[in-house]
Specification:
Blueprint: H1 20-44, E1 67-74, H2 81-84, E2 87-90, E3 103-107, H3 111-118, H4 125-130, E4 131-136, H5 137-143, H6 147-156, E5 159-163, H7 170-174, H8 176-179, E6 186-188, E7 195-196, E8 199-200, H9 212-219, H10 223-234, E9 236-239, E10 246-253, H11 258-276, E11 284-291, E12 297-301, H12 317-400
Parallel strand pairs: 3-4, 3-5, 5-6
Antiparallel strand pairs: 1-10, 1-11, 2-9, 7-8, 11-12
Protein name: Ribosomal protein L1
InterPro entries: Ribosomal_uL1-like, Ribosomal_uL1/biogenesis, Ribosomal_uL1_3-a/b-sand
Organism: Aspergillus cristatus (Chinese Fuzhuan brick tea-fermentation fungus)
Length: about 400
């Protein structure tokens, strides 16, 4: 019989690692489910266009290229600002391998320097053909102020790359239309970095060059380095954590095989634990994989819900012994006393209830007798009054006669 376990514990080594068999099983099951849903949609589709069906590659259509996400749940919130900055993790199987990919590159000012780099003869031609637009930050801020213009910009390109020096300023500039979608700008390093003996040299912001041409040429790296950084970024999974306990990272699509998806999962989890998640594996609660509209399938679950051992309260040994001893003493001699007391209280309550009932009955009988006596006295007084009245009337009639 096939195993029905959701997750399996690691038999050897540290428990803080993925089980490759579990990841492969979950990936293959998820891909089978997504493909079956795609086939159902194709069968149930009633509206089919007669013109232009063959113009677009079916494999690149949204129906055949559904995104697959890795959902990570942490035990504590990620609050470190450096870890909340947009980042990327290198993966073995790229998400942007299509030759018809449309790239928009957002750079720091001046944008003319980056355009010259992209059109340079030493820049790879296949990468130049995919970069459709290069726009500086100042022009982006001035030209795309309305919501409709930003939405149009979002629909015109597949991937947005941004200079890592201005990546945090783009949140207010691009707005929620970008940051609620899966096309958030991915940081890329295109600035020149000076190194001395293999170490980076930080520039003094107070020092400024008088020659503007030298400043423009030294602000960005050479065309070969920029091309290498862009290609490296395209083969990465973008990561942007929120100050919460749940994060979603796109790791593949429905075109991937289960082995490719499993390799991307391992690479992303390794990058998250080493760079983005505070305290690494100790802070991870669960890891799932899911499609855009499917259930989340677990691939790793933590056996404990705390991060540090100090978070767990331990009882003092003397207190536990005293509590156990007190329970034993109560169970030996005090139980009989408690039973006797409870019986006495039950009896006393029963006798009290009987006495109250008897007193109530006596009071009712006494009241009834008082009522009867009052009625008799009233009748006697009425009859006496009537007799006196008749005698007085007779005397008056005699006196008149």
């Amino acid at each position: 019989m096939p195993s029905t376990e959701l997750t399996t514990k690691v038999t050897s080594g540290s428990p803080y690692q993925l089980d490759k068999n579990q990841v492969t099983r979950a990936s293959s099951a998820l891909l089978r489910h997504i493909k079956s849903k795609q086939e159902e949609k194709e069968k149930n589709a009633t509206k089919k266009t007669l013109i232009g069906d063959n113009d677009e590659d079916e494999e690149d259509s949204p129906l055949h290229n559904e995104a697959v996400w890795l959902v990570l749940t942490t035990k504590k919130h990620v609050v470190d600002k450096n870890r909340l900055k947009p980042g990327k993790i290198s993966i073995p199987h790229s998400l942007n391998s299509s030759p018809s990919l449309s790239i928009c590159l957002i750079t720091a000012d001046p944008q003319r320097a980056v355009k010259n780099i992209v059109t340079d003869p030493s820049f790879p031609q296949d990468l130049t053909s995919r970069i459709d637009r290069v726009i500086g930050f100042s022009k982006l801020k001035a030209r795309y102020q309305s919501f409709e213009s930003r939405r149009q910009l979002l629909s015109e390109h597949d991937v947005f790359l941004a200079d890592d020096r201005i990546i945090m300023r783009l949140v207010n500039t691009l707005g929620k239309i970008f940051y609620k979608s899966s096309k958030r700008p991915i940081p890329v390093r295109i600035a020149e970095i000076e190194k001395v003996d293999g170490k980076k040299v930080k520039k003094d912001p107070k020092q400024k060059n008088n020659n503007n041409s030298d400043e423009k040429s030294s602000a960005f790296a050479s065309p070969l380095i920029v091309a290498k950084e862009i290609e490296k970024t395209l083969s990465c999974a973008p990561v942007q954590l929120a100050p919460a306990t749940t994060a979603s990272i796109r790791i593949g699509s429905s075109k991937f095989t289960s082995e490719q998806l499993a390799q991307n999962v391992e690479a992303v989890v390794k990058g998250l634990t080493e760079k983005f998640i505070t305290k690494g594996w100790r802070n991870i609660k669960a890891i799932h994989v899911k499609g855009a509209s499917t259930m989340a399938m677990p691939i790793w679950l933590a056996s404990e819900l705390w991060v540090d051992e100090n978070d767990v309260l331990e009882n003092n040994a003397e207190e536990t012994k005293a509590i156990e001893g007190g329970k034993k003493r109560k169970s030996t001699g005090d139980d009989e006393k408690l039973l006797e007391d409870s019986k006495k209280t039950k009896k006393s309550k029963a006798t009290e209830d009987d006495d109250e009932a008897a007193s109530l009955a006596a009071r009712k009988q006494k009241l009834q007798q008082q009522k009867e006596k009052a009625l008799e006295d009233g009748k006697a007084s009425i009859s006496q009054n009537t007799g006196n009245a008749t005698k007085a009337g007779k005397k008056k009639r005699q006196s008149t006669t």
